[in-house]
UniProtKB/TrEMBL annotation:
It is found in: Membrane. Keywords: Membrane, Transmembrane, Transmembrane helix. The lineage of its organism: Bacteria, Bacillati, Actinomycetota, Actinomycetes, Streptosporangiales. One of its GO terms (cellular component) is membrane. It comes from the Bacteria. The keyword Transmembrane applies. Coiled coil: none annotated. It comes from Nonomuraea thailandensis. This is DoxX family protein.
Amino acid sequence: MNIAYTVVTVLAALWVGFSALSVFISAKWVVEPLAEYGVARRWWPWLGTAKAAGALGLLAGLFVPVIGVLATIGLVIYFTGALVTVARARSYAHLPFPLLYLAPVVGAFLLGA
């Protein structure tokens, strides 16, 4: 197994997992922007769950590659949706934040391809 792929995948999973945890514990720096973007509070647990599932899927993908591919697809859709949500809210200064999570996920995928 490619060591760079493994390291980047684990780091991406930890990073996305941290993002999920931040939603679950209602970290101020995460939930305040969500409210500003107009994301209904009832969706927050689902968003955290989607990120957590994606993070776990990335790790499982180290052993069952198809799961990693599916997790990558799900996370790319998720963070693309986050970009659209931020743009629709006209919070252009916040556009880099979803990209900070999207980039390592895509990087892990490309290293594993």
